[in-house]
Amino acid sequence: MASKVTIDASATSKPKPSTAAPIEPLKNDAARLYTHIHPVIVLSMYAYKFNAIVADPVPALLAILAPLAVLQVAYVAVCLPPTGETPKVRKIKPGEKKRNAPGVLESGVNGTIVPAFLSLLLAALAATPLLTATLVLFGAPVTTHHLHTLLSGAHIALLSTLPLVYVHGVRGETWRQIVALLMPIDEVYGGMIGTMLGAWLGAVPIPLDWDREWQKWPVTIVTGAYIGYAVGKLLGGTLLKGKKIMFA
């Protein structure tokens, strides 16, 4: 007699609710200071180049891409705990000499700098093409303005994805929860949500018949992403910290 197997479709189609705790910034003076001034520096840099971005977006956005990468790498390395398990204590075998503990410089490089640059690499090589394609799907020009769209995707990737990769790694289940908006809000996740929401709202002024120079592609998109990142990071680390987005 054949056995009957029942599959719960709801259990297989929906990601499991996240049990992760909100990300806490590191508990030192440098982290406490820089986590607050970082969005101010990022917005100030963008505001300084805003007129140049309006006049000619491609060279201006390209010019601030490297400084943005430096600021994001510095932010995650100074303020955030890197992903990964706590290293296991290795037992010394009989007759084996005890190795010297890694120095402060070696621990710092292996513990924060290397993960920060790996996160930068993943954001540049993986997230940028994905977000660029997403911009096209949401209405970016298909036959023209290719560099404009690519640079927009790069800026959005550095703002939103780099910190998330640094603190959460590349585990598939975690990223399914991130995309499904199931993670608890913190300053990293809030920064990502704010960036995406800001870029989406930034598209609103483009079709309006105001005949303003700053309405051209992709000025409002990138501007919305920067403002959304700062607001989302601030709210995620304060008023909305630990909360989850609830769907009806």
From TrEMBL:
This is Glycosylphosphatidylinositol anchor biosynthesis protein 11. Pfam families: PIG-F. InterPro entries: GPI_biosynthesis_protein_Pig-F (IPR009580). Pathway: Glycolipid biosynthesis; glycosylphosphatidylinositol-anchor biosynthesis. GO terms for cellular component: endoplasmic reticulum membrane. Residues 1-23 are annotated as: Disordered. GO terms for biological process: GPI anchor biosynthetic process. The keyword Metal-binding does not apply. It is found in: Endoplasmic reticulum membrane. The keyword Isomerase does not apply. The lineage of its organism: Eukaryota, Fungi, Dikarya, Ascomycota, Pezizomycotina. It is a multi-pass membrane protein. The chain crosses the membrane at residues 60-83, 147-167, 188-208, 220-240. Keywords: Endoplasmic reticulum, GPI-anchor biosynthesis, Membrane, Transmembrane, Transmembrane helix.
